Amino acid sequence: MTTTNSSCALEPQDTNHPSSSQDLSTLPAPDHSWQVTLAGKVIAITGANQGIGLGLAEVCLANNAAHVYSLDISTPSTPFTTLATKNPSKLTFIHTDVTSESSVSAALDRIVADQSRFDGLIANAGATKHQPALDFTLDQVKRLFDLNVFGAWICATAAARMFIKLRSKGSIVFTASMTSYRPNRAAPSAPYGGTKAALRNMTHTLAMEWAEHGIRVNSISPGFVKTALTYYVEKSPDWETKMKYYGGMPRLALPQELGGAYVYLLSDTATYTTGIDIPVAGVVGAW
């Protein structure tokens, strides 16, 4: 007696039949390179004059990005100038207020005018303030949301519009945080965690909406990262005790240690990766 197995693999479709034709418009070309590289790509990073953003710029350049733009409201730091000197004509600062739609649009227009292309955006600019929830004023909370959430929204939507205009299958990467998953016991901040949780949620929804344009949207959630704003954390007298309860690697990460995940998401190797968050946290905070 002949039996059938409903769980067996599907039969190959007849792609010559009109009803089974496939839309390959979002798939890579036959000669697509599967090397993880940013060769030829023009990348914009918000808040890259210092801190995590600058570390990401360094890693992007090390992975052959054609040009990296820092969209920042602050004055370039000495390390930024040093990195620009090491990468002549490949790292440029554009004074940009990420909370202003006109400022962000002008910055992206300049990038396209200079480079005739635009491939990826890292929405990284942000701020934090660590203190008990009842010590926050409403104005302080609004300021965090204005920069961390609304600023990221303005940058992502402006980038998406530009990608669509250029017919470029661009990539957008938000810098979220492990505090979007769980409280930061070492330095609590309910408003900051709320802003980063908003970014992770936007990642999923924007990825769904913009997939039809070939635009990918993902996020990275760093753990403790050593910057000018956080260096004091591991100098706390109870640092070792806190790390005992956190678990994971008992140290702060260098900003550059986050870069590999960003490079992957910006690269053409990740053409089917969208709507996800990648924790880069040394297992800090894992339950």
From TrEMBL:
Similarity comment: Belongs to the short-chain dehydrogenases/reductases (SDR) family.
Domain of life: Eukaryota
Annotated segments matching region Disordered: 1-28
PANTHER family registered for this protein in UniProt: BENZIL REDUCTASE (PTHR43008), CHAIN DEHYDROGENASE, PUTATIVE (AFU_ORTHOLOGUE AFUA_4G08710)-RELATED (PTHR43008:SF4)
Keywords on record: Oxidoreductase
Listed name of the protein: NAD(P)-binding protein
Compositional bias segments (type: Polar residues): 1-25
